[in-house]
Design a protein that fits this description.
Layout: H1 3-17, E1 27-31, E2 34-38, E3 43-48, E4 54-58, E5 62-65, E6 68-75, E7 85-90, E8 97-98, E9 111-112, E10 120-121, E11 134-136, E12 143-144, E13 157-159, E14 166-167, E15 180-183, E16 189-190, E17 206-208, E18 214-215
Parallel strand pairs: 3-6, 4-7, 6-8, 7-9, 10-12, 11-13, 12-14, 13-15, 14-16, 15-17, 16-18
Antiparallel strand pairs: 1-2, 2-3, 5-6
C-alpha cells in the first residue's frame, strides 16, 4: 500500500469515527465576549454575555468555528440578564427568536431593535430595562408575554402593531413614564394588570378596539 493510499484510508477512518469532520456540530464557544451554542443544522444561538460587559454589542449574523459557518438565529433564555452596563444591542435580521428573560435587568440599555421575523416577545424579556425610552415592536409579533416590559420606567411610548392578539399579565406594569398607547383591533385579550401602575398613562391618549373583548381586572389601575 503506497503512502497516498494509506493517508486516504486513515482520513476515511477518522471521518467514519467522527474524529475529523467538516460537518456542523453541536458545541459551546465564546467569541468576542459572547458565548454561543452551535447546532448540527448549521445554526447558532447566543447563550451568554458576562454580567460585567460594558457598552454596546453587535451580534453577528454568523460565526465561524473550526472553518464552519453557523447562522445566528436566536438568543437564548437569560443570555444578557443583569448585564447592567450594557447600553445598546444590535441584533441581526436573521434572528427569529428571543428567549424569556433574555435582557431582564439590563438597567443601562437605551436602544434595541427587534428583528422583523421575531413572532413573540416572551415572558420577562425586557423586564427592568429601566433606561429604555423607546422600542419598536415589529409587525411579525403576535404575542407579548407576561411582564415582558414590566419596570421599563423610562419607556415613554410604544407602538403595538396590528397583528398582536394577546398582551400578557402585567406586561407593561410600572412603566411609569408611559403616557399613551394605541391598542390595535387585532388584540382580543388584555390580561391581568397589563398596564398596572402606569401612573403617567393618559386615558385620553389610550385607545383600544371593541374587539378586545377579554379585558381582565386591574388592566389599567
Amino acid at each position: 500500500m503506497n503512502y497516498k493510499h494509506k493517508l486516504f484510508s486513515l482520513t476515511a477512518a477518522l471521518l467514519s469515527a467522527g474524529l475529523f469532520s467538516s460537518a456542523a456540530q453541536a458545541a459551546t464557544v465564546t467569541i468576542d465576549s459572547l458565548s454561543y451554542e452551535t447546532n448540527e443544522n448549521g445554526t447558532a444561538s447566543v447563550s451568554d454575555c458576562p454580567e460585567n460587559f460594558t457598552g454596546a454589542v453587535t451580534i453577528p449574523s454568523s460565526i465561524t468555528v473550526d472553518g464552519i459557518a453557523y447562522t445566528v438565529t436566536s438568543i437564548k433564555n437569560y443570555a444578557f440578564q443583569s448585564c447592567s452596563s450594557l447600553t445598546e444591542v444590535v441584533i441581526p435580521e436573521n434572528v427569529t427568536s428571543i428567549g424569556s428573560n433574555a435582557f431582564r435587568n439590563c438597567s443601562s440599555l437605551t436602544k434595541i431593535v427587534i428583528p422583523e421575523d421575531v413572532t413573540e416577545i416572551k415572558d420577562w424579556t425586557f423586564s427592568e430595562c429601566s433606561s429604555l425610552t423607546n422600542i419598536v415592536i415589529p409587525k411579525s409579533v403576535t404575542f407579548i408575554g407576561n411582564q415582558a416590559f414590566s419596570g421599563c420606567s423610562s419607556l415613554t411610548e410604544i407602538l403595538i402593531p396590528e397583528g398582536i392578539t394577546s398582551i400578557g399579565d402585567y406586561s407593561f406594569q410600572s412603566c411609569s413614564s408611559l403616557i399613551g398607547i394605541i391598542i390595535p383591533k387585532s388584540v382580543s385579550s388584555l390580561e391581568n394588570g397589563a398596564f398596572y401602575l402606569c401612573r403617567s398613562l393618559n386615558c385620553k391618549k389610550t385607545t383600544f378596539s371593541p374587539e378586545a373583548s377579554f379585558i381582565k381586572k386591574c388592566t389599567f389601575l
